[in-house]
Amino acid sequence: VLTFENKKGRLNEIITGLYCITSEEHSKGRSNIEVVEKMIKAGVKIIQYREKKKSLLEKYNECKKIREMTLDSGVTFIVNDNIDIAMMVKADGVHIGQDDLPIEKVRELVGDEMIIGISTHSPTQAEDAVRRGADYIGVGPLYRTYTKEDVCEPVGLEYLDYVVKNINIPYVAIGGIKEHNMDEVLARGARCIAMVTEIVGADDIEEKISKVKSKFSRGVL
Ligand code: TZP
Ligand code: MG
Question: Where are the beta strands (DSSP E) in 33-152?
Answer without folding.
Answer: 46-49, 76-80, 93-96, 115-120, 136-139
